[in-house]
Amino acid sequence: MAMAIKLSILLLFFLSSLIPTSFSLYEDQVGFMDWHQRYIGKVKHAVFHTQKAGRKRVVVSTEENVIASLDLRRGEIFWRHVLGSNDVVDKIDIALGKYVITLSSEGSILRAWNLPDGQMVWESFLSGSKSSKALLTVPANLKVDLDSPIFVYGGACLYAISSIDGEILWKKDFTTEGIDVHQLLLSDGSDVVHVVGVTDSSQFDTYDIDVRNGGLLKHASASFPGGIYGEILPISSDKFVALDASRSLLVLISIKDGQINLQQTQVSDLIHEASGNTAIIPSKLSGIFSISTDTFIAFIKVTNEGKLDVMEKVDKMVVVSDALPLSEGEQAFALVQHGDSKIHLSVRLVHDMSSNHLKETVKMDHDRGFVHKIFINNYVRTDRSHGFRALIVMEDHSLLLLQQGEIVWSREDGLASIIDVTTSELPVEKLGVSVSKVEHSLFEWLKGHMLKLKGTLMLATPDEIAEIQKIRLQSSEKSKMTRDHNGFRRLLIVLTRAGKLFALHTGDGRVVWSSLLQSLRKSDQCTHPTGLKLHQWQIPHHHALDNNPSVLVVGRCGPSLSASSAMSIVDAYTGKELHNMGPLHSTVQVISLPFSDSTEQQLHLLIDADKRAHLYPRTPEAAEIFQRESENVYWYSVEAEVGILRGYGVKSSCNLEVPDEYCFETRNLWSIVFPSESEKIIATVTRKANEVVHTQAKVIAEEDVMYKYISKNILFVATVSPKASGPIGSATPDESLLVVHLVDTVTGRILHRMSHSGAQGPVHAVLSENWVVYHYFNLRAHRYEISVIEIYDQSRAENKDVLKLIVGKHNLTAPVSSYSRPEVSTKSQSYFFTHSVKAISVTSTAKGITSKHLLIGTIGDKVLALDKRFVDPRRSLNPTQAEKEEGLLPLTDTLPIIPQSYVTHAFKVEGLRGIETVPAKLESTTLVFAYGVDLFFTRLAPSRTYDSLTEDFNYALLLLTIVALVVAIFVTWVLSERKDLQDKWR
Predict the structure, then answer these.
(1) Which has more pLDDT, 477 or 344?
(2) DSSP type of residue 558
(3) Angle between helices 2-17 and 955-985 (to 10 degrees)
(4) Please, where are the H alpha helices in 411-536?
(5) Please, which residues have CB within 8 angstroms of residue 461's CB and are 6 or more apart in sequence?
(6) Residue 467 CB partners (closer than 8 Å, separation 6+)
(7) Which of the residues 393, 476, 569, 845 has an alpha carbon 20 to 30 A from that of 236?
(8) Nearest partner of 288 among 333, 249, 246, judged by Cα
(9) Which residues have CB under 8 Å from 550's CB, separation 6+?
């Protein structure tokens, strides 16, 4: 028996060594509970690099301020750089065949990046005297003293910059001329830079500048009394075309022998069907320009004699590319049109538009919308003829490469511009239905278990570790399209800036469905659609399987608050648009009410620009519910521009010419005015509506009890002095003042107010339960700080008598009313923090029992999990023994940053904008979704997984261990019995 016990202990010790005890992840666990996706955003500039041997690539810049090099074969990212939100990319090009040149920040920053690996070679700062249009010209075959200059116009100055090291060779200031430069031209083989623009919109000017020293060689001007609309478009090196301010005259500008000749032509004489909405399309074609009208696009040729001939008219939805040089004096361009689920692509020669050099039809998903931009590139086929590839930017911001009538690859880069996120449960798995079944042969089964055993014993090679991870992903149930009992599998429904909805599976991040909403597409009624908000619309009970959950999308048809709005209701399981409405009244605020009708549709209020409240769904049942509960419906508005907070309630039905029983007038209940000369609102934060608080009581040291002030109506408001409202350093410490307020949004009472002298924003904050944590910059200490405020209810502090609790003579269960003036007390503390912050969130769990962690999006685009105990306001330098037993940490002036606490591991969420947390059904776990240009999802257990085994727990090994123990016990028992028998016979 002793041998059996020893063997059992050894096996148990071996088993316990296999159970991970660290909070951090092993190398082969990354990707098992999380996923990371990289995007670039909507492409606005593209330059192909397909010369010579090596990798074929296209360099792009996007609306998300991303510069990236993409593989032309597969669309993968070779390298990528995400610039700051204020560093907008103006132009890109390739110099010397090896440098990517980017001009950004309104022509004030010029950079060169190494083409193969994306490393920055040099950077030049161009300080202009005033803001102006940014222009970039990279000559193809120009060398001035071997410096290979690049010509840049920005800040009303013209620069010649060496492409070798970024040194400024010369500078020409145009501030005194007062010219608004439109074009910067340099002909092949010429040593003159042509600067073309207008002065006060009434005079056309051209300057000839010597490329060697920046000297002025020639200046010519001509009066242009009507002014111009849009930009001056070059037709050739000496011909330009523009529209007058009334958009009724076409002006052809010819330069010959230093003299400027203006030739005016009525648009109606040239194009009889043209209307007043005529515009010149900025596509650069040699000797040809195109004009768009309300119904079509016309191509007009400029002859050598200066005559204008209409060559062809095409549909208005056609997109035109820039000219692509094929050979000496020959150019091609592309026309693309989106038809019925098809793209019609044709490539034509500039000098022979009558025939199609290439014509292809490609099948296209209608959910991608219309074509927005096209960039073309050519290659030489085996028969020495020209082939073409087209890079297409779609309405939903996706990117596609077309070649030989097929879609070579596509990228869903609309996911780089997420503006709102919600979640949806997956369907319930029906009994007897197997959603996914993976069959393996015996050899594959044995091979998999041998690999797992080698990984457990840490004997696996890197390739075997990757194979183990692949097997785990395939064998796990995380990618099923049904609910799991832990609540890990869900749908993340995201709304992008393009007005497209995506449903992402939390298991592996794949796109389950996508839908380009009709209500948020550009039309005659909705000219500039933008997404506004995403809300849960219908959440049916899990037993009611006949109805799918649905979401509500509210958009706006213009940039102003008074623009009309549009609505869509979308099935959360299929992405089908069930209903859309628009254009409707304006919408400045969307409020989800805590009421639902018999079909479990949630009631919503849409507040318009006239402060009227519109009820949805527009049904008699919803109106009856709302009118019954209207006395308890309150909301607030924040007018940050004028520094006013207002609280509202429902007054009566709207008094309109056409009666509307679902429209309600509002009454102004309270207002808080922050004096504009002393305070400016820079941040407001409120609690999540679905947050669960486990208990109101908080037991502190020495068995004392404090009661949290729990209210869903608390609003955190941060204001700064006007001089400190700019970027950090815009004001001195004596001029800076940060004031934070906790406001009750029902009564307008300021529950607490705190000042931070010498501090300024930006302020990022999160409000949860009875506490708020906010981040700001301390000018006096030259460091970032994080402060915490906890608010407690003093009116319940005296209810500690056990006898009163027994007989029920206490007010702990009495209803809390926002009308009564609360007796509150606060505790606060401030700590230094190392990093700047982009976003702050907090973990949320199903019952609110698990301890909280702050999720901090750092300036390095990572997400840090910080235990809430580190920002406890009760921390002291020398905590008592009772406080130590409570878990109170000793006070330090700086918050620690533990490398293992980064939720994103080694990944970066480039361009991080937001962090969403969703409670799982398992109390210990919260789901975390961080989004920006990249997407990242993971599961987080702030207090460890105390209520479950980990998903990678080796049940097979446990079973083998139990069997081995039973066999060992039986064998040793038999041997022991035999030995005892032999001893007795002696």
Answers:
(1) 344
(2) S
(3) 170
(4) 442-456, 462-475
(5) none
(6) 451
(7) 393
(8) 333
(9) 537, 538, 569, 570, 571, 572, 578
Residue type, 74: R
Which residues lie below 8 Å from residue 958, measured CB to CB, with a gap of 6+? 15
**Cβ–Cβ contacts within 10 Å for residue 967, how many?**
10
How many degrees, rounded to 5, is the angle at CA 562 between CA 560 and CA 563? 70
Residue type, 652: S
Report the chain's terminal Cα–Cα distance, integer Å.
21
Q: Long-range contact list for 349-352, CB < 8 A, 24+ apart? A: 350/285, 350/286, 350/287, 350/288, 350/323, 351/287
* Rounded CA separation 356/622 (Å): 59
At residue 543 the predicted structure's pLDDT band, cuts being 50, 70 and 90, is low
Taking the C-alpha atoms of residue 810 and residue 507, their distance in angstroms, rounded to an integer, is: 48
> Residue 463 — very low, low, confident or very high, per pLDDT cuts 50/70/90?
confident
The pair of structure tokens assigned to 289 is 């320009």
| pTM of the predicted structure, to 2 decimals | 0.86
- Within a 13 Å sphere around the CA of 769, how many CA atoms are in the beta-carbon half? 27
Report the b/e string of 204-217 with b at 16+ CB within 10 A: bbbbbbbbeebeee
Q: Where are the alpha helices (DSSP H) in 261-361?
A: 267-270
Q: What is the pLDDT of residues 633-648, one digit of tens each?
A: 999 999 999 999 999 9
Report residue 803 as tokens. Answer: 């006898």
d(CA 42, CA 413): 6
User: Rounded to an integer, what distance in angstroms lies between the CA atom of residue 53 and that of residue 97?
Assistant: 12
- Look at residues 158, 163, 165 and name the one whose alpha carbon lies nearest to residue 179: 158
Instruction: Give the pair of three-digit tokens for residue 311.
Output: 């060559």
Strands (E), 810-887: 824-833, 837-842, 853-858, 863-867
Cis peptide before 617 (omega within 30 of 0): yes
Measure the CA angle with vertex 767, ends 714 and 900; round to 5°: 175
3-class DSSP state of 165:
coil
State whether the Cα torsion 538-540-545-546 is positive or negative: negative
* Nearest residue to 738 via CA among 769, 766, 715, 764: 764
Q: For the beta carbon of residue 291, count every other beta carbon within 10 angstroms.
A: 22
Measured between alpha carbons, how far is 873 from 831 in angstroms, rounded to an integer? 10
Task: Judge if the upstream peptide bond of residue 583 is cis by omega within 30 degrees of 0.
Answer: yes
Helices 462-475 and 442-456 meet at what angle, rounded to 10?
Answer: 120
Q: Could you tell me which residues come within 8 angstroms of residue 16 by beta carbon, excluding any fewer than 6 positions away?
A: none
Ramachandran angles phi, psi of 922, nearest 5°: -75, 120
DSSP secondary structure letters along 784-832: EEEEEEEEEEGGGTT---HHHHHHT-SSTTSPP-TTSPP-EEEEEEEEE
- Cβ 772 vs Cβ 685: under 8 Å: yes
929 forms bridges with which residues in the sheet?
Answer: 916, 937
CB 558, CB 527: distance < 8 Å: yes
Q: Give the sign of the dihedral formed by CA 14, CA 16, CA 22, CA 25.
A: positive
pLDDT by residue (tens digit) across 485-510? 888 899 999 999 998 999 999 988 99
Dump pLDDT digits (tens) for 734-746.
989 999 999 999 9
- Determine the 3-state secondary structure of 921 from DSSP: coil
Average pLDDT over residues 914-933: 93
Could you tell me if 144 and 162 are in contact, meaning their C-beta atoms sit under 8 angstroms apart? Answer: no
- Residue 730, CA distances (Å) to 722, 725, 735, 761 in order: 10, 8, 10, 11
Q: Is residue 667 within 8 Å of 648, Cβ to Cβ?
A: yes
Question: In 3D, which of 239, 212, 228, 371 has the Cα closest to residue 301?
Answer: 239
Q: What is the pLDDT of residues 289-302, one digit of tens each?
A: 888 887 788 888 88
